[in-house]
Amino acid sequence: MSPMEYRTILKYRPTIPLFPVDEVCPVCHKVCLDSFGEHVVHCRELPRFKYRHDLVSDVHFDIFRRTGISAKKETPVNFLIELLEGRSTLRPTDILVFGWVGGKHACVDLTGVSPLVGLEGSAFTVGHATLKAASGKVTKHKKMCLDNQHVFIPLAFDTFGFLAPEAMDLLSRVQRVTHSNVMTPRSIDVVFKRFSVAI
After folding, report:
1. What class has domain 50-198?
2. Highest taxon of the source (predicted)?
């Protein structure tokens, strides 16, 4: 990496401000380009905005596939139907895992957040943004999934690698299945290692 990239990463991880003052983002012209530089990672107007989300989703689905867990990616579940339009108003689940909890299918929703968004002088708390995102997803989707005989699992993480408890439980179970089905020295912690690298 270049010296500039290296200096930026060294500042980013311990939350040292990258810019002296907050300014409006020159790309989207909507959001403040915060002094921590976090908006640059998440600006919706930048090309490949969904790159990290899609990469983590692809890696997680590949782990399921290699482990022998039956799952399908980007699956429409059609729980919310707009009668006038005759189509689903709920976007597809990121990964649908068949028969995951008590014979019920699990809708796994990946959510990547920044731990620095909205920091602006307030105290930094590890995992706060991730837990808030996971809670929001549960509020939004859990009841609808339960009403349709499915289980909802928010797979929330932040750019520093913090995982919400539901994500830890899911990955731990996948790791146990991996260790049972693929007994090699490399199978130990392979799920968490691959997931961390993808993040």
Report:
1. alpha beta
2. Eukaryota
